[in-house]
Every structure is written in structure tokens, then in C-alpha cells.
Design a protein that fits this description.
The chain is of the alpha/beta class. It contains eleven helices and ten strands. The longest helix is centred in the N-terminal third of the chain and has 17 residues. 45% of the residues are buried.
């Protein structure tokens, strides 16, 4: 079968799936107060607000009992509020959330990173990519992966063509062998995304930024390719790594009430984009879970005062990006 024939079948299958979207009431951890969206041609119905795996500002050292309790409490709060996707984007995050989900694994869709594709010595070897998944699954006690997503190299140093071919082949192998129910990548290399999803059918899910101030390009948007190929889009960096907040993302700060308001406004804005299946903020406390879930129930359209406030906050957000996040400015138009 040549690539043209395969792509045509993919397209026809995607169109049929779009017409027959699953009943959200049958999804994992369904809660009538949460909104669920179809994750492209995977046909998973994921919560519109889901959970990113990072724990940058949690005031507990990873591995301690306080840290484990925090992650467990936050995960359980997510399940209670109908949040049913967690994106674990490193081997350490996969291990932490696998432990937190013991006994409750079937209540969640787990995004699963294994060895990653940022290391040339890993991405340069198809065998090592496969081995990395098997070892990670065994270590974490996982029988299968919901979304096996590999993280690509970004910014100034990009993956080579051979590394990209290896990643695509590894993802295809993972799905064909039943290890992964769906496959995809995380990338910050926006100019490449549209080309990649057109070329590689194993890129069913793309995890990439869409922040509180991002907008779809009127012409030449990566969203054109997402729509054409029925790609599931999971949006990261809704709060631009905390620069949206007066506290810069410190939990339970004196500005908590204002920060909560800003977080809900940002999520309302991001969820106005019909291509976003899920926005995945990092959730550090149970209160943050409750606040994120509350944003789903608020109206999406801003009134005049809210529009002005949103412009003010996002302009400040872009200005406050630290040096290691200046690249995110390229995501104002996507």
C-alpha cells in the first residue's frame, strides 16, 4: 500500500469517526459538570480541562511522603471533578502518577512518556525507543499506554530527519503491538507541525502550546492540518509557565484570589478554541483543581470589561516571560 492510499484510508476513517463521536457519558470518570471533547481520531473523550504532569512550584521534595500525598490528593480531586486525562511528560512523572493511580488506573487516560526523543542517542535508535517503552511500562506496572507521546527536541537544536523517522516508526510499532492505544508527540517546533502530521499517520495527538494570549493565524495556521487530518490537540502552557499570575505561579500566595480569577479567565479563553481537546495546566493543589473545574462551567465569551482585562493581563504575561521562555512569544499566532 503506498502512502497516498494509506492517507486516503486514514482520511475516510477519520471522517466517519468525526460523524460518530462517542457518547461522553461513557468516558472515564464522567462528571456532568465537566465538558468532554473528542481527541481527534483517537476517539477518546477527554476532559476539556485536564492535568499537566509538572510540579515546578510544589513546596515538597519529590519522593517524600508529603510530596506523594500531594500528588495523590490532587489526582483524586481531578477524578472527583471529572478530569480524566493526565499528561506525564517524563519518566519521573510517569512513575509518580502510576503510583498515585494505583487501584484507579482505569479511571484516567494517561499520557505516557518513556525515554523521550530529546536525547540523540535514544532518538537515533529505533531499538532504544522500543526498549524504553517496554522498560518504562514494566517499571511502572502498566499493561498498556493510553497515549504514548514522545517529546521532541526544540528551539535551536532540532531532531534530525532520521530521528524523526525513528520516532514515527516506534510510535507505529507501539500501536500495532497493542502497547499503546494512541500515539503522538510533544513539540515546541511549530513550523514543522503541519508538515509532520500530514506525513506521519502515527502522529494522532500533538501536544504543543496554546496560551491565554494565543490566536489562530488567519492564513497558514497549523490548525488547518489538524482539521484535515483529524489530529487530537492537547494545549500546554495556558498560563505561560506562571507568568500570567501576580505571584508568578506560587501556590497559596497572598494574591491567590486574583490568581484564581486569572486562571479561570485564561482557561475560558483557551477553551473558546474549538480545536483544543484539552488544556493541561499544572495543578499543584486541590484548590487549583476545583478552580480549574469551575472555569469549565463559566461562560466562554468575555464581556467588554473582561476583554479589556484579558488584553491587559496577556500583554503583561508576554512581557514577563523569563529568558528561557522567550520562545513562547512565537506562539502568539499559531
Amino acid at each position: 500500500m503506498n502512502r497516498h492510499e494509506f492517507s486516503r484510508r486514514q482520511f475516510l476513517g477519520s471522517a466517519a469517526a468525526t460523524l460518530a463521536a462517542p457518547d461522553p457519558r461513557k468516558t472515564r470518570s464522567y462528571n456532568p459538570n465537566m465538558e468532554y471533547r473528542r481527541l481527534g481520531r483517537t476517539n477518546f473523550m477527554v476532559s476539556a480541562v485536564s492535568m499537566g504532569g509538572h510540579w515546578k512550584r510544589i513546596p515538597y521534595k519529590p519522593g517524600t511522603e508529603e510530596f506523594k500525598k500531594n500528588r495523590r490528593d490532587v489526582v483524586y480531586a481531578c477524578l472527583e471533578h471529572g478530569i480524566n486525562y493526565i499528561d506525564a511528560c517524563s519518566a519521573s512523572e510517569v512513575a509518580v502518577y502510576s503510583e498515585a493511580l494505583k487501584g484507579r488506573r482505569e479511571e484516567i487516560y494517561l499520557g505516557f512518556e518513556s525515554t523521550g526523543a530529546r536525547k540523540p542517542e535514544i532518538a537515533g535508535s529505533l531499538d532504544k525507543l522500543k526498549q524504553g517503552l517496554d522498560e518504562a511500562m514494566k517499571k511502572c506496572g502498566q499493561d498498556y499506554v493510553d497515549v504514548w507521546r514522545l517529546t521532541m527536541r526544540e528551539q535551536t537544536t532540532k531532531n534530525s530527519l532520521q530521528e524523526i523517522e525513528n520516532v514515527a516508526a516506534a510510535l507505529e510499532w507501539g500501536k500495532k503491538t497493542g502497547r499503546a492505544r494512541a500515539t503522538g508527540i510533544s513539540t515546541h517546533h511549530r513550523p514543522w507541525i503541519a508538515e509532520a502530521v500530514a506525513k506521519y499517520p502515527s502522529l494522532e495527538v500533538i501536544i504543543t502550546p496554546y496560551a491565554a494570549g494565543s490566536k489562530e493565524k488567519p492564513v497558514g495556521s497549523m490548525f488547518d492540518a489538524f482539521r484535515k487530518h483529524d489530529v487530537g490537540f492537547i494545549a500546554i502552557k495556558p498560563f505561560a509557565s506562571g507568568t500570567l499570575f501576580a505571584s508568578l505561579g506560587v501556590p497559596d500566595s497572598p494574591t491567590k484570589r486574583d490568581d484564581d480569577d486569572r486562571a479561570r479567565m485564561a482557561l475560558r479563553y483557551v477553551l473558546n478554541c474549538d480545536l483544543v481537546a484539552a488544556s493541561i495546566p499544572g495543578l499543584m493543589t486541590v484548590d487549583q483543581v476545583k478552580n480549574a473545574a469551575a472555569a469549565v462551567k463559566e461562560r466562554r465569551q468575555f464581556d467588554r470589561a473582561e476583554t479589556a482585562r484579558h488584553h491587559e493581563l496577556t500583554a503583561e504575561m508576554w512581557r514577563n516571560l523569563p529568558a528561557n521562555y522567550l520562545w513562547l512569544r512565537d506562539w502568539q499566532w499559531v
